[in-house]
């Protein structure tokens, strides 16, 4: 694999034109702040925010170059937004910092440092800054305690995460990032059920059982796992050429969910190439994934089988407030080696896939985003796996091979004229067997986990989100999820789990969303956070989750109340 990636690196470098930089962590608050600014200005500013994680340099420069200066000084909440980004990202371009006179609290000369060497700037524990080199090191901590009531029984839950992160650059051309986090946790019961089904912790993968004084016995014990991610990025030509090689996650989309590529599954090895020309941003991702595996392979420390992903996305800012994109992804296996023909960075692989015998799983998609009236954003995605137009028109036919997914959503910022009151509604659906393949060698999964939506397929979902910032450092978020999906009873395959090959499908026709064990899922979450100092947050959470299935044995009710403290890490919601 390493030789194939090297070949891809060399070949693609010769023909790609893109920019590289350090990227912001996925789920980081700065993605949300940037999204607000795009809507408020009605101007993308040549940033293609559909491709995440965003580059740190893009986020910071967008604030200074696109957003009007008087916007930031209107009130303390807007000033706080500006300061957060500038303080967090003052390491880009080594010594370049904002020249705006209203920027506060950077103290670059270290006049408020701790013991002279620590926190010479507010965001970083330790920093090294020279003419040709920059690096910073920060701790990562996340402690959380919760009380769960599950089907009438109560127990204590905990989350204990510790780690460290380092990032920097050399000559403003070579960028690097790495973090390592160790976790011990007792998750809610519904998360445990998903972990047992997939033999993997959602978003983390491999785990060991962990016994704690807070978990009485192995039946309710927690999990212990280690995660690490990092990358090296190279500027081959300033503002035009950039390549990133690393181990981590990517997200393609403008919504709460992604039907193309999300951050639900665990980290994977990837080579990413970005191409920026005029109003276009073209991204290639070549990744090594893990095929489906069983409990025996984990129990005996056997090597897990590999498969590969080649994904391309072409983003085009037609107008300063209108964007469309084309997506193509192909998952395949070649006896532990990459298919050389898929190193071609040009989009539309279908002809190549047919030329090699059509053995692989190809999906294509279209996405759009329209920001209008400086208050609203209308966005969506359409993904196509297989489709028979004749059977689609005959709605009663329900051919199993009509495999597609749809997302559409609307965002409303500063709703009803109230500053920092933001609302979002989103609809998602995927027909049965979407993302599945005839066997496990090429389904749209990684480490037994979906690469796109956490519900897999055979579902319809509606999400509503209200986010309000009553004070500069305080944030309140309320979210409602309602979905209908079909579960598989023992030994059946009704098309909800993409890890199961479609050759074992139950029927050719009459396939409809929700087939199998029809289940209604309702989730309500309320999350409060307060930033004590830069990137140090106190959190409180309430969740009510109800599963109502046709089979009463699958009914579940969860009530969760928790408080926590996190430092230099975002809260990743398990809202499924």
From TrEMBL:
InterPro entries (alphabetical): Wzi_sf (IPR038636)
Keywords: Signal
Signal peptide extent: 1-18
Keyword Signal recorded: yes
Protein name: Capsule assembly protein Wzi
UniProt source species: uncultured Aureispira sp
């Amino acid at each position: 694999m390493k030789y194939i990636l090297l070949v891809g690196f060399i070949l693609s470098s010769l023909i790609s034109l893109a920019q590289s930089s350090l990227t912001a962590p996925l789920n980081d608050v700065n993605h949300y702040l940037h999204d607000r600014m795009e809507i408020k200005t009605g101007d993308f500013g040549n940033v293609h925010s559909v491709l995440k994680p965003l580059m740190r340099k893009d986020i910071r420069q967008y604030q200074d170059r696109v957003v009007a200066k008087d916007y930031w000084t209107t009130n303390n909440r807007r000033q706080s937004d500006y300061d957060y980004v500038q303080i967090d990202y003052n390491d880009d371009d080594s010594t370049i910092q904002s020249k705006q006179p209203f920027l506060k609290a950077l103290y670059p000369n270290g006049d408020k440092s701790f013991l002279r060497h620590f926190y010479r700037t507010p965001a970083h524990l330790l920093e090294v800054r020279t003419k040709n080199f920059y690096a910073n090191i920060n701790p990562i901590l996340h402690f959380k305690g919760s009380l769960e009531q599950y089907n009438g029984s109560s127990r204590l839950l905990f989350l204990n995460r510790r780690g460290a992160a380092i990032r920097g650059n050399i000559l403003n051309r070579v960028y690097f990032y790495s973090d390592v986090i160790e976790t011990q946790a007792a998750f809610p019961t519904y998360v445990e059920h998903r972990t047992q089904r997939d033999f993997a912790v959602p978003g983390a993968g491999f785990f060991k059982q962990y016994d704690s004084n807070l978990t009485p016995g192995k039946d309710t014990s927690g999990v212990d796992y280690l995660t690490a991610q990092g990358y090296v990025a190279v500027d081959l030509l300033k503002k035009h050429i950039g390549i990133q090689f690393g181990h981590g996650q990517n997200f393609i989309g403008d919504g709460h969910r992604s039907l193309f590529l999300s951050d639900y599954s665990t980290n994977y090895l990837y080579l990413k190439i970005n191409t920026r020309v005029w109003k276009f941003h073209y991204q290639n991702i070549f990744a090594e994934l893990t095929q489906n595996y069983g409990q025996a392979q984990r129990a005996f420390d056997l090597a897990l089988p590999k498969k590969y992903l080649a994904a391309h996305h072409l983003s085009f800012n037609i107008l300063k407030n209108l964007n469309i994109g084309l997506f193509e992804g192909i998952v395949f296996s070649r006896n532990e080696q990459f298919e050389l023909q898929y190193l071609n960075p040009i989009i539309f692989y279908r002809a190549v896939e047919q030329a090699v015998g059509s053995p692989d799983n190809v999906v294509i998609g279209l996405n759009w985003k329209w920001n209008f009236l400086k208050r609203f954003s209308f966005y969506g995605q359409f993904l196509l796996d297989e489709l028979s137009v004749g059977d689609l028109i005959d709605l009663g036919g329900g051919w199993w091979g009509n495999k597609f997914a749809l997302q559409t959503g609307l965002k409303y910022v500063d709703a009803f004229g109230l500053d920092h009151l933001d609302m979002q509604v989103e609809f998602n659906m995927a027909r049965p067997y979407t993302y599945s393949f005839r066997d496990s060698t090429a389904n749209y999964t990684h480490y037994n986990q979906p690469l796109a939506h956490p519900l897999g397929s055979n579902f319809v979902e509606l999400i509503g989100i209200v986010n309000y910032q009553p004070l500069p450092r305080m944030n309140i978020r309320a979210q409602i999820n309602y979905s209908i999906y079909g579960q598989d009873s023992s030994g059946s395959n009704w098309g909800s789990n993409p890890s199961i090959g479609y050759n074992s499908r139950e029927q050719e026709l009459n396939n409809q969303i929700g087939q199998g064990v029809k289940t209604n899922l309702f989730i309500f979450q309320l999350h409060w956070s307060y930033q004590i100092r830069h990137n140090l947050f106190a959190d409180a959470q309430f969740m009510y989750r109800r599963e109502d299935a046709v089979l009463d044995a699958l009914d579940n009710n969860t009530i969760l109340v928790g408080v926590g403290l996190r430092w230099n890490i975002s809260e990743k919601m398990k809202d499924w």
